[in-house]
Amino acid sequence: MLEVLYYANWYLRSRFLGRKMPLQSVVFITSRCNLKCRHCAISKATEGGLLETEDFSFQKVKGLLKECHHAGSRMVTFEGGEPLLWKDGDLTLEDLVIEARRMGFVSTSYSTNGTLPIPDSRTDRIFVSLDGTRKYHDMIRGEGCYDLAIKNISESKYRHISVNFVANVLNWECVPEFIEEMAGVKNIRGMSFNFHTPHAGTEDMFLPWEKRSQVIDWLISYKKKGYFIINSTEGLRRLRNNKYVQRCWVTDFVLPDGKRYPYCPGYDEKICERCGYGMGAEMSAVWDFVPSTIVEGLRLFSKV
Ligand SMILES: C[S@@+](CC[C@H](N)C(=O)[O-])C[C@H]1O[C@@H](n2cnc3c(N)ncnc32)[C@H](O)[C@@H]1O
After folding, report:
1. 71 domain-assigned
2. CB atoms within 10 A of CB 76
3. Binding site membership of 197 for ligand 1 (Cβ less than 6 Å)
4. CB of 33 shorter than 6 A to ligand 1
């Protein structure tokens, strides 16, 4: 209930009083990772020596969370690197989740590559990145990663796991098979879909528009059949050609170099036209007050 009031307040203030407040923060807490995924710009940057591999200290993350909260954000997603590798002494990612809650964030989530056991958690949602059926996922993330992720998902005691698929030139064609396969995996509560966003060093993975459109047709049709695809139909439609008003200040970012960005860093990279992040399209539909998108968003972030 508290969440709903906060979201309503945010909407009224930003829409009608013109206050550009973030609703959500994406906070990178480490650049360390145990994988080298073919589509990941962070992996390319650490490999190329452009980014140091480090974990931020608990105090540093706490300070960054405070800044995000002060700016207005009340939903936080922890990112990396691999967030489950994050440590500061005895403190783990779970301590950051608890701290964010204590500070007043109404919703927390994090992504993981699924290669480590998925602990029970007080977070609202965990997204396990799966980029296809076994052959495709392992081609992108490394041999054996698919089986390990499925094992860790199935054995987890945590009850709010979703999978996150990023469609690119290598994996797009397995989407229908992937959806049907995931529907049969124990513990998976939803599937979210994004398209490859061509950050520096990963431009060659961008999926051509006509293939993106084909994937969107598949997703809308599977949604109609009742498969739990988290993206709203309107959000998917907007991703078809990206001809929607992008309001990327709705999410603020703390990047792996520790710098806070009041909007998506893709803007400065001049790649918004080819953006594939579903969240941008969803947020724009929320702003335009598309009821189905709002209902689906509340269902996801507040465990309604
Ligand atoms: C950067 S990873 C970090 C967290 C964790 N290691 C993982 O694999 O989920 C977070 C998410 O971003 C996605 N991602 C990475 N590069 C991307 C890109 N260029 N465009 C869109 N999504 C991307 C990943 O597939 C993953 O789902």
Report:
1. yes
2. 28
3. yes
4. yes
Where in the sequence is the domain holding 290, given as residue range(s)? 2-9+26-301
Task: Kindly indicate the confidence band of residue 303, based on its pLDDT and cuts at 50, 70 and 90.
Answer: low
Q: Ligand 1 centre and the CA of 191: distance in Å?
A: 14
Query: In this structure, is residue 194 part of a structural domain?
Result: yes
Select from 35, 39, 44, 53 the residue to mutate for testing ligand 1; criterion: most ligand atoms less than 8 Å from CB: 39
Which CATH number belongs to the domain containing residue 206 in this structure? 3.80.30.10
| Å from CA of 97 to ligand 1 middle | 20
How many distinct structural domains can be found in the chain?
1
Q: Is residue 137 part of a domain?
A: yes
- Nearest ligand 1 atom to the CA of 197 is 20
For residue range 120-172, list pLDDT tens digits in order: 999 999 999 999 999 999 999 999 999 999 999 999 999 999 999 999 999 99
Q: Is residue 21 part of a domain?
A: no
Measured by CA distance, the residue closest to atom 9 of ligand 1 is 112
Tens digits of per-residue pLDDT, 201-236? 999 999 999 999 999 999 999 999 999 999 999 999
Distance 85 CA to ligand 1 centre (A): 15
Q: What is the pTM of this model?
A: 0.95
